[in-house]
C-alpha cells in the first residue's frame, strides 16, 4: 500500500474551469481567463493549498486541460491532483478505467495522479477492481469513491482490501443545506476508520456565498441559476446568519459556510475562479466556529426548508 495520503485542510475545486471561458456561458457562467487562473494557482500554491480537484466530465476534458497548463509552471512534487473515472462517460474498450486515466494524464501533463476517484457507483463490482492494477503500476497513488452510499463504500472497500489496498477517501455533496452524509452515518463511518471525507458543494454553487439574492440572482441561462434562483428568497435567513457570524470573525458569509464544514470534520472542496477566493480560504482555515455558532447555522439552514440534492445524486 502507498504512503498515507496528505490531506489538506481545504481542497481546490475546478468544476467551473470546465466552462467555456465566456461570461455567462457554461454550467456556472463564470468569466475565466487563462491569466486569471494562473493568478489563482500562484496565490493558492503560495498559501499552501496544493490539492486540486477536477474530473474528465468538467467541460468534457476542458477543466483538466486548463489545470494542466496552469500547474506546469510548478514542480510536480509541489501539488497534488485529484481526478475521476466517471462510469457514465466510459468507452467500450477492454479497460475503460485505464483508458480514461491515460486521457486524464495526457491532459494534465503528468505521469501519475495523487488521488483517483470512481465518480459514482454505477456498478461497484465492475469498476472498483480496475483501480487495483493502476495502484500497482504507480500511475495512481491513492484511490477514493465519490457519491457512493455506505453500502457501496463497504463493497468497494472489500474489493480493494482483498488486493491489499483500501478506500482512502470519500467525496460527497455536503453542506449546511444538504446534510445527508451526516444523517445516514457516513461522516461517522469515515471518522471511525480515519478516512478523509471530502465535501463538495459546501457553498451550493455560490448560493451560500452571500453574493446572490432574490434581487441579485445567479447568471440566467446557466444550470446553477435553474437549480438555485427559485430558492434564493428562502435562503435569506441563513445568509443573514452567515453574514452576522462572519462580522464577528472578520470573515465573509462564504468563509463561514466553509468553516462550518471544517468544524464538522470534513475537508471542503471549494471552487476557485478568482484570486480573492484564495484569500477567503486563508481566512477560513484560520478560524474556528463555536458549537453555538454551528448550532445556530444549522437551525437557520433547517428552517430554509430547501432540498439541494443534485440531479446526479441518488438518495443516501
From TrEMBL:
Keywords: Oxidoreductase
Residues in NADP-dependent oxidoreductase domain copies: 10-298
The keyword Oxidoreductase is assigned to this record: yes
GO MF assignments: oxidoreductase activity
SUPFAM superfamilies (UniProt xref): NAD(P)-linked oxidoreductase
Highest rank taxon of the organism: Bacteria
Name of this protein: Aldo/keto reductase
GO CC terms in record: cytosol
UniProt cross-references to InterPro entries, sorted A to Z: AKR, AKR_Detox_Biosynth, NAD(P)_OxRdtase_dom_sf, NADP_OxRdtase_dom
Amino acid at each position: 500500500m502507498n504512503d498515507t495520503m496528505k490531506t489538506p485542510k481545504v481542497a481546490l475545486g475546478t468544476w467551473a474551469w470546465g466552462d467555456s471561458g465566456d461570461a455567462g456561458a457554461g454550467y456556472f457562467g463564470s468569466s475565466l481567463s487563462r491569466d486569471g487562473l494562473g493568478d489563482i494557482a500562484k496565490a493558492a500554491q503560495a498559501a499552501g493549498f496544493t490539492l486540486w480537484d477536477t474530473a474528465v466530465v468538467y467541460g468534457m476534458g476542458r477543466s483538466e486541460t486548463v489545470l494542466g497548463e496552469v500547474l506546469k509552471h510548478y514542480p510536480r512534487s509541489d501539488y497534488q491532483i485529484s481526478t475521476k473515472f466517471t462510469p457514465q462517460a466510459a468507452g467500450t474498450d477492454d479497460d475503460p478505467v485505464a483508458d480514461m486515466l491515460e486521457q486524464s494524464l495526457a491532459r494534465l501533463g503528468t505521469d501519475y495522479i495523487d488521488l483517483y476517484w470512481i465518480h459514482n457507483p454505477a456498478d461497484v463490482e465492475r469498476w472498483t477492481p480496475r483501480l487495483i492494477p493502476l495502484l500497482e503500476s504507480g500511475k495512481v497513488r491513492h484511490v477514493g469513491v465519490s457519491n457512493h452510499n455506505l453500502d457501496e463504500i463497504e463493497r468497494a472497500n472489500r474489493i480493494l482490501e482483498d488486493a491489499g489496498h483500501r478506500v482512502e477517501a470519500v467525496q460527497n455533496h455536503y453542506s449546511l443545506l444538504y446534510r445527508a452524509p451526516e444523517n445516514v452515518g457516513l461522516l461517522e463511518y469515515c471518522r471511525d476508520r480515519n478516512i478523509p471525507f471530502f465535501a463538495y458543494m459546501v457553498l451550493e454553487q455560490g448560493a451560500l456565498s452571500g453574493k446572490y439574492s432574490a434581487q441579485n440572482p445567479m447568471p440566467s441561462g446557466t444550470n446553477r441559476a435553474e437549480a438555485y434562483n427559485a430558492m434564493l428568497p428562502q435562503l435569506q435567513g441563513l445568509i443573514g446568519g452567515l453574514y452576522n457570524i462572519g462580522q464577528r470573525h472578520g470573515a465573509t458569509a462564504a468563509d463561514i459556510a466553509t468553516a462550518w464544514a471544517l468544524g464538522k470534520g470534513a475537508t471542503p472542496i471549494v471552487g476557485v475562479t478568482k484570486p480573492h477566493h484564495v484569500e477567503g480560504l486563508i481566512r477560513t482555515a484560520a478560524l474556528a466556529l463555536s458549537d453555538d455558532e454551528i448550532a445556530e447555522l444549522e437551525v437557520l439552514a433547517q428552517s430554509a426548508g430547501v432540498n439541494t440534492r443534485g440531479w446526479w445524486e441518488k438518495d443516501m
